[in-house]
């Protein structure tokens, strides 16, 4: 259920055969408050927190000047999100300067991301990269398979071949468009327009997803995530409602088919980034929503 002012109100309703009626699903959220836990990696490049979902993982780093992050034999495309500080990304012998307040996608293979200045670096990967998946603080949270989530399947390669692609996040809001959505072969990332102050409590958006997770990455401000488990015929599936208060930086992975909505609650700017893997078809089918759709074809 979306408020009529929410662009997602125009999306098609849930498919028949909804997971809401199935039993025995693994529906435990995975939450990480980076600001109150020790990093998984603390080295000369900075402090890094890693947290995963079924198909994706987030590496959030507070970097030092001159930090270099290398990937050798990376098996698939990954994302680099630069909220403020710029970076240089090298792949296939070519270096691309990416300014701050940008998002970039890096092809498979060997690559480096270097930051001349200190700042925040967010990298998003698929969990097909087992070395990173095992380094996550919640690595054991997925030992029990989520059989209701389909096996990971990447989307088609870019039509004009592999290269580092970067896009400015300086995109003004537009009537009828939801956030600032970008996709690659492995991920869909929605850098939402920030809420200035608390969200209007009369305009919430409770909804659920049948068969994919949502990662909600808080970069500034404070949020309350509201979760409600549907009642099935098996009382073992029933849970009390949850209201998870989380500051920034933090990551909540919301499982299907849990009903959820999030309210920005901080007094200042509240910035949230939604993550999906692989990309969402419903968002991709909305004209103008995916800002780099021309670069990445949809599956046939």
From TrEMBL:
<dbReference type="InterPro" id="IPR011051">
    <property type="entry name" value="RmlC_Cupin_sf"/>
</dbReference>
<dbReference type="InterPro" id="IPR014710">
    <property type="entry name" value="RmlC-like_jellyroll"/>
</dbReference>
<feature type="region of interest" description="Disordered">
    <location>
        <begin position="1"/>
        <end position="23"/>
    </location>
</feature>
<feature type="compositionally biased region" description="Polar residues">
    <location>
        <begin position="10"/>
        <end position="23"/>
    </location>
</feature>
<protein>
    <submittedName>
        <fullName>Uncharacterized protein</fullName>
    </submittedName>
</protein>
């Amino acid at each position: 259920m979306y408020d009529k002012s929410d662009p997602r109100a125009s999306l098609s309703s849930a498919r028949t055969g909804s997971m809401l009626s199935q039993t025995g699903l693994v529906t435990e959220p995975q939450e990480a408050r980076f600001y109150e836990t020790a990093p998984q990696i603390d080295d000369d490049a900075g402090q890094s927190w890693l947290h995963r979902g079924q198909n994706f993982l987030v590496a959030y780093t507070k970097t030092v000047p001159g930090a270099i992050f290398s990937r050798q034999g990376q098996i698939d495309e990954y994302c680099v999100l630069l909220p403020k500080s710029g970076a240089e990304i090298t792949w296939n012998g070519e270096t691309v300067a990416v300014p701050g307040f940008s998002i970039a996608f890096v092809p498979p293979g060997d690559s480096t991301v270097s930051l001349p200045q200190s700042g925040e670096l967010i990298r998003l990967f698929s969990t097909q990269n087992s070395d990173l998946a095992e380094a996550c603080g919640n690595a054991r949270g997925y030992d029990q398979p989520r059989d209701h989530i389909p096996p990971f399947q990447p989307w088609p390669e870019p039509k004009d071949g592999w290269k580092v692609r970067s896009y400015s996040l300086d995109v003004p809001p537009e009537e009828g468009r939801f956030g600032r959505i970008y996709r690659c072969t492995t991920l869909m990332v929605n850098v939402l327009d920030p809420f200035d102050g608390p969200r209007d409590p009369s305009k919430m958006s409770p909804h659920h997803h049948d068969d994919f997770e949502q990662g909600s990455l808080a970069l500034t401000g404070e949020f309350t995530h509201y979760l409600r488990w549907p009642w099935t015929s098996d009382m073992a599936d029933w849970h009390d409602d949850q209201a998870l208060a989380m500051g920034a930086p933090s990551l909540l992975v919301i499982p299907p088919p849990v009903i959820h909505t999030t309210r920005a609650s901080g007094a200042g700017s509240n910035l949230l980034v939604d993550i999906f893997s692989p990309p969402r078809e419903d968002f991709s089918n909305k004209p103008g929503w995916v800002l780099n759709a021309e670069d990445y074809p949809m599956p046939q």
